[in-house]
Design a protein that fits this description.
Helix content: 40-55%
CATH architecture of the largest domain: 3-Layer(aba) Sandwich
Strand order of the largest sheet: 3-2-1-4-5-6
Number of domains: 2
Oligomer: single chain
Structural class: alpha/beta
Shape: globular
Bound molecules: 1,6-di-O-phosphono-beta-D-glucopyranose, magnesium ion
Radius of gyration: 17 Å
Low-confidence stretches: none
Number of strands: 6
CATH class of the largest domain: Alpha Beta
Length: 218
């Protein structure tokens, strides 16, 4: 039996850090007199920090100097880091530990594949770093999702062929990246948004041990 590579996105899959990104982006947008709603925040899921700020500025019709742009990026991240400094294991999303434990018992290869440059800090906060054989995040890539780079690097680090990899993703861009990488895509969220994934589940409580075993054995 071939060992499979299981690749997990972070925000929206393992933990819900979107709410902290929202608070930090809202504070920044409001300081520039730009309105920022939770619906707009949805559009930033899986999107890199630079691209997120570019989108917010375009929604508010604002242009900034390079220096102002860099300053705001740093301020947003400082604010975000303050929020995540209070995170602990209670913030791991339901049934994620069960699935990680099962994959470990089945001796499968497990990687993180996240756009976040703060991924390692967050995994430390929630005490999950040791669950991963590889960690690939926003510091390791030059092209953001929907480019498949992050997942292809993860497959390489795990030593598993991309076609034997399975990706758990909550964002439209991330599911697209998994599909382009020729991996099995599993959307975590709503079918309406993630209909392009091969499978969609509301969350990990809907993913049975038998389903995981079928992915391992197929
Ligand atoms: P950072 P993921 C993504 O994480 C978030 O969904 C997205 O909202 C955020 O802008 C991006 O990481 C970059 O995060 O500012 O921490 O580098 O879903 O790919 O795990
Ligand atoms: Mg995500």
């Amino acid at each position: 039996m071939t060992k499979k590579g299981f690749i997990f996105d972070l925000d929206g899959v393992i933990v819900d850090t979107a709410k902290y990104h929202y608070l930090a982006w809202k504070k920044l947008a409001n300081s520039l007199d730009i309105d920022f709603t939770e619906e707009e925040n949805e559009q930033l899921k899986g999107v890199s920090r630079v691209k997120s700020l570019e989108k917010i500025l375009s929604w508010g019709n604002k242009t900034l100097t390079d220096e102002q742009f860099k300053g705001l990026m740093a301020a947003k991240n400082e604010d975000y880091l303050n929020h995540i400094s209070n995170m602990d294991e209670d913030e791991i999303l339901p049934d994620v530990p069960r699935v990680l434990q099962l994959l470990k018992e089945e001796q499968q290869a497990i990687s993180l594949g996240s756009a976040s440059k703060n991924a390692r800090t967050i995994l430390d906060q929630v005490n999950l770093k040791s669950a991963f054989d590889a960690i690939v995040d926003g510091n390791d890539v030059s092209k953001a999702k929907p480019d498949p780079e992050v997942f292809l690097i993860a497959a390489e680090q795990l030593g598993v062929n991309p076609k034997d990899c399975i990706v758990f993703e909550d964002s439209v861009a991330g599911v697209e990246a998994a599909n382009v990488a020729n991996m099995i895509s599993i959307g975590i969220g709503s079918e309406d948004v993630l209909g392009h994934a091969q499978y969609v589940f509301k969350d990990f409580t809907e993913i049975s041990d038998d389903f995981i075993k079928s992915l391992i054995n197929n």
